[in-house]
Design a protein that fits this description.
It contains 18 helices and ten strands. It has about 500 residues and is mostly helical. It folds into two domains: about 140 residues, no CATH class; about 325 residues, Serine Threonine Protein Phosphatase 5, Tetratricopeptide repeat. It has a two-stranded antiparallel sheet with strand order 1-8. The two termini are about 35 Å apart.
Length: about 500
């Protein structure tokens, strides 16, 4: 109960900032003045959350004894990992010296959001992250690697690496050594993340509408095969990335040989091919592996007559990119739909490693341990270490050696590694960069065009509106009337 109370307070804190804290239940005879609680300063709320987690942790089990029935119940490791995330959030720019909220508070009292940056908060976060990482490793957790079942053909290295990454969240929790805490309800929207790759799927549009679309800017965020951003890779034709190129045998496990697709789809890191489906991409799964890995079905998405192309105003992917990471490779969509369960992780080891690396970098700048924990995640992704990659391939080779440069690298690494897992929004808020990220228009390909040269032209779909006020949710007007002590969040 203490853990749950801590977690829900933390969730409200991220949404609304300063919130009221009711440490002891009010008696039913409480008067109006007692019920009209005031919002507490964020540091006070963070301290209360930390206190509850510290009280709860010793009484929680180390592991779940009956995983088949009880996974999802809280363990000491989950509590320690949530505490690490709580303290990293408290130390992050949005909650640690944020001048945008200088006037936010009660008359005659200190601001509810701290106005002075306190570096020591990162030191506290480092200790919490280390405790969580040590506990995870002591419990035997490790980064996931795909073990092919006996009914699969032998996988070439390219597909094996892709499945190491894609199936990180597709593997059953009890068989996945990386999941610390997962959502217990099964993710039920796989059909919306799945491109149509055969005639049966076209005939049953409702089974797999395929309308969860990934913005072009996200597809561009993934690294090149050299482990650096496209616009930093000295060997990558960034300016010519929208040109059309024909797939050769060298890329036959990622894309269909002989097919024309965008130049930016070539020479990308394995996570790009593991997480995304797109025009020309091979699709591994959907019950169509009987012809072997050299003859995988592939996505055709250009124009309304293509299988994965727009069919109406609903069964349409408006950008031309699907988040295939959110589809279990064993799920089958056709005349009948057979969905294999997939649980979205709340916390997994790769995310915890990157959280620890971030805290270490903010507390002391680049150190061997910072590189160690980032590189562990990159190694599983088939990439070289940060220092080697930037020194060898980047047009900004010194970026990985500075605290500011490494901060950008770690933030990008988290956005790529945890893509489509519901983490990015919270990270972008606490880093206080959401406005910057959403300053660009949301774009996709010109999906109604059948000609490849015409299809591969960025098309603006919408321009996001995210202002300073949107970092925090507003409080409903009715609640402010009932309790005037709540006071509205700034800018609303």
């Amino acid at each position: 109960m203490k853990f749950l109370k801590a977690y829900y307070h933390f969730h409200l804190l991220r949404m609304y900032g300063p919130i009221p804290v009711v440490r002891v239940n009010l008696p039913i005879t409480a008067g109006t003045s007692e019920v009209r609680t005031k919002r507490e300063a964020t540091d006070s709320v963070f301290q209360y959350v930390k206190q509850l987690l510290d009280e709860a942790t010793p009484d929680l089990p180390m592991t779940i004894q009956d995983p088949a029935q009880s996974l999802g119940r809280i363990t000491q490791l989950i509590a320690l990992s949530v505490k690490a995330e709580v303290l990293v959030t408290q130390a992050s720019p949005f909650f640690n010296g944020n001048p945008d909220y200088a006037g936010f508070g009660y008359k005659g009292e200190a601001p509810l959001m701290p106005q002075t940056y306190v570096a020591a908060k990162w030191d506290t976060a480092v200790l919490a992250c280390k405790a969580a990482v040590d506990a995870a490793e002591a419990a035997g957790l490790k980064l996931y690697n795909f073990i092919a079942p006996g009914n699969l053909p032998a996988l070439p290295a390219e597909l094996k690496k892709m499945m190491d990454l894609r199936h990180t969240i597709g593997e059953k929790w009890e068989q996945n050594p990386e999941i610390i805490w997962g959502l217990n309800p099964v993710f039920g929207l796989q059909g919306m993340c799945m491109p149509r790759v055969n005639d049966k799927m076209v005939q049953n549009l409702g089974g797999a509408p395929g309308n969860f679309a990934v913005p072009l800017v996200m597809a561009e965020l993934f690294y090149t095969k050299n482990g650096v951003p496209m616009n930093e890779d000295r060997s990558f034709d960034y300016r010519g990335r929208y040109a059309v190129e024909t797939v050769t045998a060298a890329d036959k496990y990622y894309m269909h040989e002989g097919y024309q697709t965008a130049k930016m789809h070539f020479g990308r890191e394995p996570r790009f091919y593991a997480d995304l489906s797109f025009d020309g991409a091979n699709y591994f799964g959907n019950g169509m592996l009987d012809q072997g890995v050299d003859n995988l079905p592939y996505v055709t998405a250009r124009g309304a007559t293509s299988m994965a192309g727009p069919k109406d105003k609903i069964r349409v992917n408006v950008t031309g990119y699907w988040p295939q990471k959110l589809v279990n490779y064993q799920s089958v969509f056709g005349e009948q739909v057979t969905t294999i369960g997939l649980r979205i992780p709340m916390i997994r080891l790769a995310g915890l490693y990157l959280l620890y690396a971030e805290a270490l970098n903010e507390a002391g700048g680049p150190t061997a341990d910072v590189y160690k924990y980032v590189d562990l995640v990159r190694e599983r992704a088939g990439l070289k270490g940060v220092l080697e990659s930037w020194t060898t391939y980047s047009s900004n080779p010194g970026k990985a050696s500075s605290k500011d440069g490494l901060r950008q690298i770690i933030q990008t690494e988290r956005r790529i590694e945890l893509a489509f897992e519901g983490r990015a929004g919270w990270d972008l808020r606490r880093w206080k960069v959401m406005q910057q990220v959403l300053a660009s228009p949301i774009q996709g390909w010109d999906i109604y065009q059948a000609d490849p040269q015409a299809y591969y032209r960025p098309r603006t779909l919408t321009i996001p509106v995210f202002g300073l006020k949107d970092y925090l949710w507003p409080i409903k007007y009715d609640e402010l009337v009932v309790n005037p002590n709540l006071i509205q969040n700034p800018y609303w």
